[in-house]
Amino acid sequence: MMSGSNAKLLAAGKRLLTIFAVLWGAATLTFVAVKLIPGDPVAILIGSANSVVDDSFRETLTRQFGLDKPLWWQYLRYCGEALTGNLGVSYQYRQPVVQVISAALKETVPLAVSALALALVLAVFNALLTAGRHPRLRSLLAGLELMLLSTPVYWIGIVLLSIFS
């Protein structure tokens, strides 16, 4: 029989192992999905498949992004770079991905925090309304909640844009 602290340590270890497995799986699926995209990655980097580009420039880009290496090497490099926080360069913006993400976070974080605060206020209000002896109100709000949870997020977004714009 295990002591309480050993059981907690084992549970924490299992949880960390699960987190690692999920992150590794997501990274692997992302790598595979990017490799399965049809087309030439160098042509995407250049910007147009129809543009005339010197072969030496194409070879330079191929070497720079490691596309001339075997797939297993590209995967190991991808995992190693991701573990060190180097997410590479965005093909679209031609900037480090970390900079692109941090620029987007300036708008995303305030929106997420305000949405979380609104959800908390609505949840407390809902709990206070349904905690009493009002079975019809409780059923109505539970049905409304189920309907909203079942509705696709993009559709709710379109409706809210129509209402508030």
Automatic annotation (TrEMBL):
InterPro entries membership: MetI-like, MetI-like_sf
Membrane topology (UniProt): Multi-pass membrane protein
Main location: membrane
Cross-referenced PROSITE patterns: ABC_TM1 (PS50928)
Example GO biological process: transmembrane transport
Localization per record: Cell inner membrane
GO CC annotation terms, alphabetical: plasma membrane
UniProt keyword terms in alphabetical order: Cell inner membrane, Cell membrane, Membrane, Transmembrane, Transmembrane helix, Transport
Membrane-spanning intervals of the chain: 16-37, 109-129, 141-164
SUPFAM superfamilies, A to Z: MetI-like
Keyword Protein transport: no
Family: Belongs to the binding-protein-dependent transport system permease family. OppBC subfamily.
Name by which UniProt lists this protein: ABC transporter permease
Native source species: Klebsiella variicola
